[in-house]
Design a protein that fits this description.
With about 210 residues, the protein is of the alpha+beta class. The protein is built from six helices and nine strands, in the order βααβαββαββαβαββ. The chain has a single domain, classed as Histidine kinase-like ATPase, C-terminal domain (Heat Shock Protein 90, 2-Layer Sandwich), CATH 3.30.565. The protein has a five-stranded mixed beta sheet with strand order 3-5-6-9-8, covered by helices on one side. A hairpin with a 6-residue loop joins strand 5 and strand 6.
């Protein structure tokens, strides 16, 4: 049976760092591979391919770093506010690709930092419900500094990963690892904002809310 999770501050920081490294290791590794190809005596066509690989992978790494800076990092001083326009920019860079499209319906306003961090982490949760890609529609619940969020995901074989709801509630059957830390951290952010998270199927969609 799931039980409450208690993490020391150092363990939480280490697991979040591991999560960030996990997000970055693939594109950074691809950059290194591309450079190695460029350094070899490859033909011109191969070098063009390697340069394109480097360009795309560097852009991916940059987008993920910018996202993680806000979603997991300090992103400004304590009590700072963040522009939802900036949140949209990093969300598109992180989440949007050939398979997944975002429809952003939030107004461009300043919101407390933790509330924006929560929004970005909710997007990660919602993205995890459509492993084969699809669409994510982000809408406000209410307005002003107390604004909540609703994210509707649609995609082939959309589902709520089995462990996510309990992790969001701060509970788990097994020790928390780098894979599980993100939904657990999302729950911490929600409670810090005085909000609760909902994950539920709605027809063929999955709806993630924070209010």
């Amino acid at each position: 049976m799931p039980g409450p999770v208690t993490l020391e501050a150092l363990d939480l920081a280490a697991l979040l760092c591991s999560r960030v490294c996990h997000d970055l290791i693939s594109p950074v590794g691809a950059v290194v591979n591309g450079i190695e190809v460029m350094e070899d005596d490859a033909d011109e066509q191969t070098k063009i391919f390697a340069l394109e690989l480097i360009r795309k992978s560097a852009a991916t790494a940059s987008a993920r770093l910018q996202f993680c800076r806000i979603a997991f990092g300090a992103a400004g001083s304590a009590g700072a506010a963040i522009d939802l326009g900036d949140a949209e920019s990093v969300a598109r860079g992180m989440m949007e690709d050939d398979k997944t499209k975002l429809t952003w319906k939030l107004p461009r306003v300043l919101l407390p930092k933790n509330r924006v961090k929560l929004l970005l982490n909710l997007l990660v949760l919602a993205g995890g419900t459509i492993p084969r890609g699809g669409s994510l529609v982000i809408e406000p619940i209410g307005e002003g500094d107390t604004m909540g969020f609703k994210i509707t995901s649609n995609g082939l074989n959309s589902r709520i990963p089995q462990t996510v709801p309990t992790l969001v509630m701060g509970e788990a059957e097994n020790p928390i690892d780098a894979h599980a830390i993100q939904p657990f951290y999302t729950g911490l952010l929600a409670r810090a904002c005085g909000m609760s998270i909902g994950l539920a199927p709605e027809g063929e969609s999955i709806v993630v809310t924070a209010r």
